[in-house]
Amino acid sequence: MSEQDLKYLIAAYQQKSFDLFSQSVANDAKIRQLNDLVEALTKKVNEQQEELDKLNSKPKRATKSDAGDF
């Protein structure tokens, strides 16, 4: 391999490593964003589940069994 070949090879490695590093950083940012979204949505689901549990645990109103005779 000549010196010129090595220069092109090194340049290609540098470009590829820069591209992969950039993709890695972008993916890390996206993962953090999605983890925050999952955390916020999980919190909201838990709050709504608690609200639903409260509504279901309240005593139900009695219905009139005798509406009267006509």
Please provide a written account of the structure:
79% of the residues lie in helices and 0% in strands. The chain is built from one helix and no strands. It has one helix at residues 3-57. It is rod-shaped. The model has no long low-confidence stretch (mean pLDDT 92).
Keywords:
single chain, 70 residues, mainly alpha
Largest β sheet strand count, sense and barrel closure: none
Backbone shape: rod-shaped
- Strand percent estimate: under 5%
Number of strands: 0
Q: Give the termini distance in whole angstroms.
A: 108 Å
Tell me the radius of gyration. Answer: 32 Å
Can you tell me the number of structural domains? 1
Percent of residues in helices:
over 70%
Order of helices and strands: H
By secondary-structure content and strand pairing, the structural class works out as mainly alpha
In oligomeric terms, what are we looking at?
single chain
Report low-confidence residues grouped into runs of 5 or more.
none
